[in-house]
Structures are given as structure tokens and as C-alpha cells.
Amino acid sequence: MKKLLRRILVTTRDENFMHVIENIEVLVSKALSIFMVIVILVAITDLGIFIFKELFTAPYGTFNTTLYKIFGLFLNILIALEILENITAYLRKHVFQVELVIVTSLIAVARKIILLDFDKVGGLDIIGLGIAILSLSISYLIIRISNSKDAS
Predict the structure, then answer these.
(1) Rounded to whole angstroms, how far apart are CA atoms 39 and 25?
(2) According to the 3-state scheme, what is the secondary structure of the chain?
(3) pLDDT tens-place string over residues 2-20
(4) pTM exceeding 0.85
């Protein structure tokens, strides 16, 4: 009887501790969501200011050179939106969605490649980015196939 009572008390303490941890996780996730929204709003403002300056102050014919910078700013916002989606998905289900993480990583690597200055980058770096894209793409394919089988 004494052992059973002790086991119940330990279990209750463990459950209380886990409840506190879960509450902390939710609070941290909510704080991250708020900060990410702020980051996204600042990034959109920065993008708007940059585009406005380039449209009205850049000499004619030089807009093409800044187009890659604009793409980079757009992709930064998309990456931030994906990270926000990761956080909100965690808040909804309390599970990290690996598919979202891989998509976010693919966008980040694509951004890196789009902005890459091939004159300043060595062949080994390009090979590394290629391997990263291939690995992420295969991972994404595996997860999509497994998710479609689970849904069936």
C-alpha cells in the first residue's frame, strides 16, 4: 500500500512538472510568434522602402542589377512566413511538422543560390549547395510519400 501511494505521488509530481513545461513551451511559442510578426512587418517595410527608392532614384537601366536584391528581400519575407507557419503549427498541434521545416530550408537554400555571386564562390561551395538541395528534395519527397500513404 505504501509503495502504491508513493508511486501515485511521484506520478502526480511528474504530471504537474510536465504540465508546467508544456505551459512554458506555449508561452515561448507565442512570444516567438509575436516577434516573428514584428520581423515580417519590418521586412515588408524595408522591402517597400527599397523598391520605392530604386524605382524613383536609380538611373534608368540599372534596375536589373537591383532585381536580385529585391528577390532576396522577397524570399526573406517568405522564409519568415514559413517560420511563422512552423511556430503556429506547433501551437495548434504541439508537434513539429517536418515537411514545413524542409520547405523552409529549401526556400532558404534557393534564396542563397539566387543571390550567389558565382565570381566570388568556389566550386566546392556550389557542390555543397547542390548536395543540400538534393538532400532536402529527397527528404521532402520521402515525407510527402509517407504522408500520402498515411492519409489513404
Answers:
(1) 21
(2) CHHHHHHHHHHHHHHHHHHHHHHHHHHHHHHHHHHHHHHHHHHHHHHHHHHHHHHHHCCCCCHHHHHHHHHHHHHHHHHHHHHHHHHHHHHHHCCCCHHHHHHHHHHHHHHHHHCCCCCCCCHHHHHHHHHHHHHHHHHHHHHHHHHHHHHC
(3) 666 566 556 677 777 788 8
(4) no
Burial, 31: exposed, middle or buried (Cβ in 10 Å; 0-12, 13-18, 19+)? exposed
Contact 91, 112 (CB under 8 A): no
Read off the pLDDT of each residue in 107-130 and give the average, rounded to a whole number.
Answer: 85
